[in-house]
Amino acid sequence: MFVLLGASSVAADAAENGFSQQVTPSHGAARAIGEYSAGCLSGAKPLALDAPGYHVMHPSRLRYFGHPALLDFIRTLGRAAHAQKLSSVLIGDMSQPRGGRALGGHASHQTGLDVDIWYWTPKHGSHDALATDERENLKARSVLNGKSIAPAFALRVTALLQVTASDPRVTRVFVHPIIKRELCASVTGERAWLSKIRPWYGHDDHFHVRLACPSDSPDCTPQAPVPEGDGCGDALAFWFSDAAQADRKQGEHEYEAKVARAPQLPAACAKLLTE
After folding, report:
1. 3-state secondary structure at position 149
2. 102, 16 in Cβ contact below 8 A?
3. Of 170, 160, 49, 175, nearest to 113 (Cα)?
4. Is residue 39 part of a domain?
5. Which of 59, 131, 161, 196 has the fewest Cβ atoms surrounding its Cβ within 10 A?
6. In Å, how far from its chain's centre is CA 253?
7. How many CB atoms lie within 10 A of CB 144?
8. 34 beta partners
9. What is the sign, positive or negative, of the torsion defined by CA atoms of 57, 58, 60, 61?
10. What pLDDT does 262 receive?
11. How many domains does the chain contain in total?
């Protein structure tokens, strides 16, 4: 069956292709521009593939670029993981060299302020550089065992998420609803960091970290602050209700419709495709 694409679909595909075809960052100072799901990144910096406490995975995808604040956050997390003997963290998608929407990729990750981090790490937990075949072929793995976190991963998952959410630059950390529920039940003492742990569909094999707009990026559109409290009450219960499942199906349809429309990118983003 042939599908006739409307002008808006063609425009959306053109925008996606334009950013996906960029293999180098633009010149100039680093600036996050626009919204997390409708923006771009000027003056992006590449993250070193290996450093104490972390390794970048699947670099052939060219999604290891970000705003300097994101790179510093990842290096800080890697050092903390190393110090706490949590084994190296594996870094998934960040942003493309000039941000924007990736073909077949995320709706967000467009401004250089988002990163996916795997819960799982190889048993050898080496701080040495990974072999090329490991780096490109290893896949993220779920840490769930039915309706809970697998016992072998529980302590590491909790520690990584606490270190991550405690960083003042982090505004949200998206995790599977079951993982949020486990944290609500198990964390004692200081719980303020739990407010940043937000349940979202999927996210059982990685957690998605989002930084706040940096002070050097006046054209970055901030997301609304997270609600007050630890997020462990009725708001979390919703994610395990029949209403949540219906909401998810509706959301998927709305997302498909949104993708079919031309993205409303800031004018500054169009300029990045011509530099």
Report:
1. strand
2. yes
3. 170
4. yes
5. 131
6. 22
7. 18
8. 39, 220
9. negative
10. 52
11. 1
54-68, 76-90, 184-198, 249-263: the lowest-pLDDT one? 249-263
List the beta strands (DSSP E) in the chain.
31-35, 38-42, 45-46, 50-51, 54-56, 65-66, 89-91, 114-118, 170-175, 197-199, 206-211
CATH number at residue 143: 3.30.1380.10
112, amino acid identity: G
**What separation in angstroms does the CA of 75 have from each of 55, 78, 112, 198?**
10, 5, 15, 23
The whole-model pTM stands at 0.88
Identity at 214, one-letter amino acid code:
P
205: helix, strand or coil: coil
Residue pLDDT, tens place only, 170-227 = 999 999 999 999 999 999 999 999 999 999 988 999 999 999 999 999 999 999 999 9
Contact between residue 55 and residue 140 where contact means Cβ atoms under 8 Å apart = no
Contact 165, 194 (CB under 8 A): yes
Instruction: Look at residue 87 and tell me if it is in a domain.
Output: yes
Q: What is the dihedral of CA 125, 131, 134, 137, to 10 degrees?
A: 150
